[in-house]
Design brief:
Order of helices and strands: HEHHEEEHEHEHEEE
Number of strands: 9
Helix content: 25-40%
CATH topology: Aminopeptidase
CATH class: Alpha Beta
Strand content: 25-35%
Structural class: alpha+beta
Number of helices: 6
């Protein structure tokens, strides 16, 4: 992958041969399973995130510099089928121990949906802070995101609970007001000293 920055070009295969090659690989994904890994700071993963942002609507395409900073400051996980990156998840734990784990963004390319990748990315993020409530926001008309998060909650024996949008800071949820967002929490069962699970 070329290390020269491409932020000043529109994200289009005509301007970025690597983007064109990646798009072709997405079109011919094998039926094999997927893997996940943590993104690392540097231009390669920052650019891969830019590609994923470009095709995972309604996610905003960011600059490579923005993505590099995000990778440095937050937990960014990516999913691969074979050698092709097909999804990502951005999360961070709140500053205080009593704060939630904020899952800010989950995106999976259309050709790879239906394989459980989004839920797996959420699981991997949640494992980084197992004692915390999970908080996130979805847009009102994004039924796919709502379905994915409901499935994820069920898979860990919990339920989605809608909370007031102002319960958490917009920047922690990774949203901008006025775009039809609703906020949610997932309260996970916590182990007790005797080994039984209780709701926090």
């Amino acid at each position: 992958m070329n290390d020269s920055r491409s932020d000043h070009y529109p994200l289009h295969p005509a301007f970025d041969p690597d983007f064109a090659e990646w798009l072709k690989s997405v079109e011919v994904l094998p039926s094999a399973g997927f893997t996940t890994r943590q993104a690392t700071a540097g231009s390669k993963d920052a650019r891969l995130l830019r590609y994923l942002q470009g095709v995972c609507e309604p996610i905003t395409i960011q600059t490579e510099l923005y993505n590099e900073n995000m990778i440095s400051e937050q937990l960014v996980l990516v999913a691969l089928i074979g050698e092709t990156h097909v999804g990502f998840c951005v999360s961070k734990a709140g500053a205080d121990e009593s704060d939630p784990l904020f899952i800010e963004l989950v995106g999976v390319v259309e050709a790879a949906r239906g394989r459980g990748i989004g839920s797996a990315l959420m699981h991997a993020a949640a494992e980084q802070a197992p004692a915390r409530t999970i908080a996130f926001a979805t847009q009102y008309d994004n039924l796919a995101a709502r379905s994915m998060t409901a499935s994820f909650a069920a898979s860990i024996g919990a339920e989605l609970r809608r909370v007031n949008l102002g319960s958490y800071r917009d920047e922690d949820l990774g949203i901008r007001r006025g775009l039809g967002y609703r906020s949610w929490t997932i309260e996970r069962a916590q182990p007790t000293a005797a080994g039984a699970a209780t709701k926090s």
